[in-house]
Design brief:
homodimer; 336 residues; alpha/beta; Rossmann fold; six-stranded parallel beta sheet; six-stranded mixed beta sheet; elongated; DNA-binding
DNA sequence: CCTCCCTGATACAACGTTATACCAAAACGG
DNA sequence: CCGTTTTGGTATAACGTTGTATCAGGGAGG
């Protein structure tokens, strides 16, 4: 029956002014212990929950954070979200997650909606095809933004991976095992982080005096990885190892091998990227470049908190290593 | 340099009052074509994006929707989110996703934060251990809420699955193949939907005059399913088929079999629930009870939209069928 | 030429908070 | 016992919108 209680409801119940209630609730100003108790009792009595929107409007403080992902379906992201949320919620922020599904238009709509609803900051994994107008919009609103993986502007804080170095380690490992023909599988767009991974791959090949790079583009999904591996076996039977743009592609590639009656780590070595939970669980277990997504989330959150604390500071870039986790999908090439 | 433009910025640029700008932007009132053009030009010129929070405060309208999941990591949810978002964004709403990770405390914090930040409606998959205080909070705020899967209150709209019937079909299928000892795998809490699934399983067993139910509780994850299957093979070698509380458990169980050198669909038949994308992709492909998560999301969104349109109407409950998709993990039991 | 009535735009108060200036009463020092 | 400070609280104006009452001006009708 009762309307939603507001500050004035509490004030009336406690017999004080709204200003007093507000001060008690925020712990500012000089309020005696006696009236504080009265006010808190009234708050409980009417079951009052402050309207943060109105508070934000007046105070200018904003504790709502947007987290825009380019592909929520990737299991990598669930843990990333956990890391971001845990850290930010501890500081009283509310994190809302949106999925652009790698669609630039949807991403633009999402970002506009987030700005319109006045998020105080953004953590953003840009989709491919992000346009300049959207970027201008964000900078014009001077919204604190931290991008992840794909750098789209020098004006934002950024957290990236040491992609080239990681791919170098993967190729080193394969070369040491004796592989001479190593392909790169996955991704479709000529942008970071994929381009940097391909760079690292190509440079490592050259360092080992192995043949020219062979890049096979495909979506970062299991079905695409499966199809790509089937195609690779047909067209390039000399290739004995592949490094992949992501674990989904790698796991799909393994499935493709299984479908041919072959097996990763026997006919062909496979290395993934991300180390999603399924990588260790798959049979054979996937050798992969591991980045701890929960910790990555924490890092992003910390970066954003620092930015919120000092909006004027120069943009900061951090890079995170991906470490090679050797499991069962890499082995010396078959003798024949 | 420039501050974030507001209504008055636009008004000044167009040489009209703020009220006029507001009316133009919302298409209400009587404004001549000439001034409308001037205003719209000014909007573009200063790159104005309205503050929806302030608008909501004044107008009472609210287009922010919260989506609280109990386990975002389950790939089932990515598609569900897509369905919900597509439908609601089409109607101008903004959907923000939170993950309670099946932790009642975190869920309570999340819900309180959403109420505090004045979401206009909620779609909610309740976690196990949801307490009455949280429920009271939601009803006291008379927030439009649609629950999914786990019903926690008669006062909310609800969308559920026909769990018992679905499990019945699964058991029928196995019985017809000749299985006499069928176990149930997965879940830990004595609440819907698991309890209803177990009910359906037990009733179907009875109808086929098969032995007493054998329920093996475990978390709804691959590692847990793997461990449970290993345990089952040791303790109950007579069991030749399992139905699972979810695809993650079922896929984990298949991995467990593989680890023993056995195979789902040969030594043991396995049936899952959900039909996540990986179910069809796994080898062997998983027989499972399929519910189209994207469509389910649309249904939820429609339900919430109807509720927002008529907050006073009596709560509505909808049930969705899960259909049996027969793939490669079910077969007649081995002869021996 | 003076009403009367539209048309088009504006002034102003409200939404639920917070920040600040302000005030009354009590406490204190000399 | 009076001035000064401190304590504890309130009144009031914002924040950026929207809804409504109001108003100025122009055209039509008498």
């Amino acid at each position: 029956m009762a309307e939603r209680p507001k500050l004035s409801t509490v004030a009336a119940a406690a017999g004080v002014s709204t200003a007093t209630v507000s001060q008690v609730l925020r712990g500012t100003g000089r309020i005696s212990a006696r009236t504080r108790e009265r006010v808190l009792a009234a708050v409980r009595a009417v079951n009052y929950l402050p309207d943060r929107r109105a508070a934000a409007l007046r105070s200018g403080e904003n504790h709502e954070i947007g987290l825009v992902l380019h592909h929520l379906a990737n299991p990598f992201n669930a843990e990333l979200i956990s890391g971001v949320s845990d850290r930010l919620e501890r500081d009283g922020h509310l994190v809302s997650v949106l999925d652009s599904r790698d669609d630039a238009d949807r991403q633009t709509r999402n970002l506009r909606a987030l700005i319109g609803n006045r998020r105080g900051g953004l953590i953003w994994v840009p989709a491919s095809g992000t346009d300049a107008a959207t970027l201008d919009l964000l900078t014009a609103q001077r919204l604190p933004v931290v991008t992840l993986l794909h750098r789209v502007s020098e004006g934002f804080d950024h957290v990236g991976l040491r992609d080239a170095a990681a791919l170098g380690r993967a190729v080193d490992h394969l070369a040491r095992l004796g592989h001479r023909h190593i392909a790169f599988l996955g991704g479709t767009t000529p942008r970071a982080p994929r381009s940097e991974r391909i760079d690292g791959y190509a440079r490592a090949l050259a360092a080992h005096r192995l043949g020219p790079p062979h890049v096979l583009p495909c979506d970062d999904s299991k079905p695409a990885g499966l199809a790509a591996m089937l195609a690779l076996r047909e067209t390039r039977p000399d290739v004995t190892a592949v490094v992949c743009n992501g674990d989904m592609v790698a796991l799909g590639a393994c499935l493709g091998l299984a479908r041919r009656g072959e097996m990763a780590g026997r006919e062909i070595s496979v290395i993934g990227f991300d180390d999603v939970a399924d990588a260790a669980l798959a049979t054979p277990a996937l050798t992969t470049l591991s980045v701890a997504p929960y910790d990555l989330g924490c890092l992003l959150a910390d970066r954003l908190l620092a930015r919120l604390a000092d909006p004027a500071a120069a943009p900061v870039t951090r890079h995170v290593e991906a470490t090679l986790v050797i499991r069962d999908t890499t082995a010396p090439p078959p003798p024949h």
